[in-house]
What does this fold into?
Amino acid sequence: QVHPVESGGGLVQAGGSLRLSCAASGSIFSINAMGWYRQAPGKQRELVASINRSGRITYADSVKGRFTISRDNAKNTVYLQMNSLKPEDTAVYLCYVNGPSPSSPWYWGQGSQVTVSS
It folds into this structure.
């Protein structure tokens, strides 16, 4: 079992910044991809950003230029720096860890509430 543990999140005014962290522990042999999804009330879960072992990064169009994902392989930790936050970024952000291959199980963090006030 792999246990991603999230930290960060909270309440911020529009235009502000927040940083999320997700540290994976447990039976980790090799991590393939790490990243973040988010889910707002009444909406489907959507990919925010992901980074794989090779460093390939994917962002949702809605966050490009504002959010930055990074990864510390030595610490099995992924970060999401969120700048220029908008009220529509309000959601529960969920970290995931996948590995050692893309077909391996996905493990999810507990979720972090991000609320952006206007």
Remarks:
- The CA atoms of residues 23 and 77 lie 4 Å apart.
- The radius of gyration is 14 Å.
